[in-house]
Write a structure and sequence with these properties.
Number of domains: 1
CATH class: Alpha Beta
Shape: globular
Order of helices and strands: EHEHEHEHEEEEH
Helix content: 25-40%
CATH architecture: 3-Layer(aba) Sandwich
Oligomer: single chain
Length: 183
């Protein structure tokens, strides 16, 4: 493998007003920022103005920009919030607007919700498997009750740092390994 840094996108999985995923994403990026083996960047699906899948002819500029962004990345960290035991419709829609851009890359998942977002993360793992994305085992789960003040201001407990760093280690290792088969 070359000494070139990996490019890893921190994908914000919500588009709703008042969402807290930007706070969680910036926290992960802040922790990852000191690493010398990868560049981390926030990828906000709301920036791409993706239409609902099936309601378009596929020519909207956001669709090609989304695919180009994903194609430029070596791996992903998904910031996933649980809605009705699953991921958001916006995230599923964004995932479905790409195919090959996901292939042979690695992903970590940071989830939150009343039960740490664990059910949404498990749902996402099945989707990622279909897209040839290798998801890593370490999975930080954040509770709306203990890691958020008034369910809106993110105040993570220090105990999560070890899991975040372990997940980042795994994503970087797997992303580097998978990059060799994409080249």
């Amino acid at each position: 493998m070359t000494n070139q840094k990996l490019n890893i996108g921190i994908i914000l999985g919500s588009t709703r007003q008042g969402r807290v995923s930007p706070q969680v994403g910036e926290w992960v990026k802040g922790i990852a920022g000191s690493r010398e083996t990868a560049n981390y960047q926030i990828v906000d699906i709301s920036d791409y103005n993706l239409p609902f899948l099936g309601t378009t002819d596929g020519t909207e500029p956001g669709i090609s920009a989304w695919n180009e962004k994903l194609d430029s990345l070596d791996g992903f960290i998904f910031i996933v919030q649980e809605y009705n035991h699953s991921i958001t419709g916006a995230l599923k829609n964004a995932i479905d607007f790409a195919r090959e851009a996901w292939h042979n890359k690695a992903a970590g998942i940071v989830s939150y919700g009343s039960t740490g977002g664990a059910r949404a993360a498990e749902h996402l793992r099945g989707i990622l498997g279909e897209l040839k994305v290798a998801d890593v085992r370490t999975h930080p789960t954040l509770s709306l009750f203990t890691d958020f003040e008034n369910w809106s201001e993110f105040k993570p407990q220090e105990l999560h740092l070890a899991n975040i760093n372990a997940m980042l280690d795994e994503v970087e290792t797997w992303s580097g390994a998978l990059k060799t088969i994409r080249n």
